[in-house]
Specification:
alpha+beta, disordered C terminus, BirA Bifunctional Protein, domain 2
């Protein structure tokens, strides 16, 4: 398990971006380690293999984190997935991790993760992208849900980012394992 010595991110928030991951990929040379890019809306948000991520503007948590080093994608996925499960459980939302990169509640997707690496001669950076459906009330697809649909309560998007970062940093301090293995869904 990798361990960050310090995690003091700079947060850049945009009203609209094509993709938070793409922004970090295009600008990583000029940004400090652990920069967080957050968008209120994405025009080309995506998941694995280019699948699109539907998100109503201003209703969901859409962000990416830049790590200016190689991080094992499996361990990073496990850590971020575990963190999402923890913060959802705080709101009485019993979620499971559906391999390889989704968080599901009652058979519907509530969050997705995307890890991308930037290579030169070696890996120069790793980017973790997360989309969490927070206050969106309807979706084009039938297999999506949100915190609002699960709890009938509107919550502040910035509170979700703060909770994620606090729990993510806390999980990082646990060396050798995390609680993810207890929560993997059997799909």
């Amino acid at each position: 398990m990798f361990l960050m010595q310090s995690f003091n991110p700079e947060i850049k928030t945009f009203s609209t971006l094509d993709s938070t991951n793409d922004y970090l990929k295009q600008n990583y040379l000029f940004l400090p380690d652990h920069t967080i890019c957050q968008a209120l809306a994405q025009t080309k948000g995506r998941g694995r293999r280019g699948t699109s991520w539907e998100s109503e503007a201003g209703k969901n948590l859409l962000f990416s984190v830049l790590f200016k080093e190689y991080l094992d994608p499996i361990q990073l996925m496990r850590l971020a997935g575990s963190t999402l499960l923890e913060i959802l459980a705080e709101k009485e939302i019993q979620a499971i991790f559906k391999m390889p990169n989704d968080i599901w509640v009652n058979g519907k997707k509530i969050a997705g993760l995307l890890i991308e690496s930037i290579y030169g001669e070696t890996c120069e950076a790793t980017i973790l992208g997360i989309g969490l459906n927070v206050n969106q009330r309807s979706f084009v697809t039938q297999n999506a849900t949100s915190v609002w649909l699960e709890t009938n309560t509107e919550t502040k998007i910035e509170d979700w980012l703060a909770r994620f970062l606090k729990e993510f940093i806390n999980e990082k301090r646990i060396t050798g394992h995390n609680r993810f293995d207890q929560k993997i869904g059997n799909f």
